[in-house]
Design a protein that fits this description.
Radius of gyration: 43 Å
Largest sheet: none
Distance between the termini: 146 Å
Helix content: over 70%
Number of helices: 1
Strand content: under 5%
């Protein structure tokens, strides 16, 4: 009778170990699957972020180009205005010098 009880205890322990092993295996499969899914989700989000960044960069590059063109035009206009004033002042200065000495 005692050996029968020991035998049942050993069978129960063996069954328990088997179920624990199956549970650990299932747990590892779930963790691996979740990890894989998380990696894919992260890669997808990174890809989306890179695409958005590329779009923003292109937009900012275009805006920068327009800004540079406008700034260059404004500078050229200001230089032209200054040149005209300088020429007028030069002409007035030459006339003044001529009128004082001749």
């Amino acid at each position: 009778m005692a050996s029968e009880a020991v035998k049942k205890i050993l069978e129960a322990e063996a069954l328990s170990e088997k179920k624990n092993a199956e549970a650990r295996k299932k747990r590892d499969e779930i963790i691996d699957s979740a990890s894989g899914s998380a990696s894919l989700a992260i890669q997808k989000k990174l890809s989306e972020a890179h695409s958005e960044i590329a779009g923003l960069k292109a937009d900012f590059d275009q805006k920068l180009k327009v800004y540079q063109q406008n700034a260059e035009k404004e500078c050229e206009d200001n230089i032209e205005t200054i040149k005209k004033k300088a020429e007028k002042n030069m002409a007035s200065a030459v006339e003044e010098v001529i009128s004082r000495f001749f």
